[in-house]
Amino acid sequence: SLLLAGPRAGALKQAHARIIVTGHSRSLPFITKLATLAVAAGAAPYAHLLATSHPAPDSFLFSSLTRTAAHHGLPVAAIAFYRILLSAALPFSSFTFTAVAKACADLSAIRTGTAIHAHSILLGFGSDRFVLTALLVLYSKCGQLGVARKLFDAIRDRSVVAWNAMISGYEQNGLAERAIEVYKEMQAVKAVPDSMTFVATLSACAQAGALDLGREVDRRIVSERMDISVFLGSALVNMYARCGVVDKARRWFDALQERNVVTWTSMIAGYGMHGHGHEAIKLFHLMRREGPPPNHVTFVAVLSACAHAGLVMEGRDAFACMKRIYGLVPRIEHYCSMVDMFGRAGLLDEAMQFISDYMPGEPGPEVWTAVLGACKMHKNFNLGVEVAERLIALEPENPSYHVLLSNIYALSGKMHHVEKVRNTMIKRRLKKQIGFSLIELGGTSHLFRMGEKSHPQTTEIYQYLEELIHRISAAGYMPETESVLHELEEEEREGALRYHSEKLAVAYGLMMSVGSTTPIRVIKNLRICGDCHLAIKFMSSVENREIVVRDKHRFHHFKDGKCSCLEYW
Length: 569
Prior knowledge:
One of its GO terms (biological process) is RNA modification. The chain is mostly helical and 569 residues long.
C-alpha cells in the first residue's frame, strides 16, 4: 500500500489506516517509510505527527525525515526534525549534518548553521568530507568566504559540489577574479567539472570581462557535447553580452531549444548595454508574443535600454504595460530608470514631474543621482545644485555627491563654491572613489590607475601613449580640460587628463598587439570621462582598430573615429 501510494498525501493516509487496521502501527520500518513519503508529498506536519507519536522512534527515522525535507525544498521542516533528534539525544550521522547544513544554506540561516557546524565538530564529524562540503556551501551562500575557503582547503578529496560552491561563492559576492582562480586550480588538478561549474565560471567571466576564458569554456562545452540546459545557455548568453560580443550572445540565444525569463532578460539587457535600444525593444515584443511573461528584472532591462538609446515613447509604453498587462508593481529601479530616461533625453521638467506624480513616498538617492547626472549632461546648473544639495542632506558621508556638486559648481564658473565643497570633503575626510581600468591580454589581466607606474613596462607604455597623443592631436584631438580640476592651469589640466587609466590601458593593449585586427577590450569601474571618450574615438581612427570600453553603465564600441553610443551616454 505504501509503495503504491507514493508521495501523495491522500493515498498515504489510506495506507496509514490500513497499517493500523492490520496491527502494524508500532512497526518502525512502516512508520519510517510512511513519514518519509509524507514529507516528500509536502505534508511535513503529518510526518511530524507520525514520527513523534511512535513509542520508540530511532535515529534513522529522524535522519531520514531531515534528509527528505532538505531535498524536497522544506528547509524549515528539516531543521525542526534535526532539533527533535537533538532533544531526544539520539545518535547522529554525517548524512543528518549534511542535510541540515543544506537546509540552513537554503534559508541563509548563518547563526543556526554555525551552531550546527559546532555540533558536528563536537560529535567528531569535523573532518568528514560530506559534512565539510555541505558547510562550505552554507558559508559560501551566506557570504562568509573566509570560513568557506578554510573548509574548502581542509577537504582532501574534493567533489565537484565543493569546487562549484567555492567558485559560485566568490562570483556571487563580487569576487570574480578569485572565482576564476579556483576554476583554474580545478583544471590544474584535473578535477572533472559539470554543467554547474561552467555556469558559475561563465558568470564570473561575465563579471570580470574575462572573454578569453569565457570562449575557452564555450569551446569545451561544445567539444564535450554537453547538454545545454536553460541555465547553461543563459550563462553563455550573459557572458558574451557582458564581455562585449553581443552578436555571439544572440547566436547562442537563437540556438537554445529552451529559454526562460533569465535568458530573455539577459539578451535584452545585453542589447541595452551596447546601445542597441531598438533591438532590445524588438526582442521584448517577441518575448511578449512567444516567451515567458516578463518579470521585474526584465522591465528594468527594457527601461534601461530605452534610457541609453533615447527611446522615450517606447519607455513610456513599457512602463505603462508593466502594471496594466502584467500586474507588476513598479519598484525603485523602474522609477529610477524612467527618471534617467527623461533626464538623458533632456526632458528634465518631465523627469521632475514624473517624480512628483508617480513616485510613492520620498524619492531615494538613486533617483536624485539620475537627475543630477542629467543636469550635468545638459548643463542645467541651477537644478543641479539644488539636487546635489538634496543628495548631500540624504547621505552626507557619500563622497561622490560632494564631487558631483563640486563639478556642477566648476562647470558653472562658481569657483568659490568649488573651494567650499572641497574644504568640507577634507574636513570630513571624504575621498572620491579611485578609478581603474582592466585589460586582458593572453588570459592575464592588467590593471591601471591614473598615473599608474607600477607596471613592469611603464616606460614603454608612457612613451607609446605620448606618441599616440601626438598622432591624435595632429588628427584634430583637443583635450577637454573642463573635465578636470578648474584651479589647475590649462597645461596642468592636459597633463592630468593624459594619464587617465582608460588611456593607459588602451595604449598598453595597442602596444602589445601591433599589426593585429582583434578589438581592444577595456573595463572601467567608473563612468568613462568626456576627454577619454573623445581621445579613444581618435585612437580608433589613427590606429584603424576597434576599441571596446565597458564602463560602469554601458559599452562603448569605438571604430573609425565614432562611438556606438552616438554621444548619447
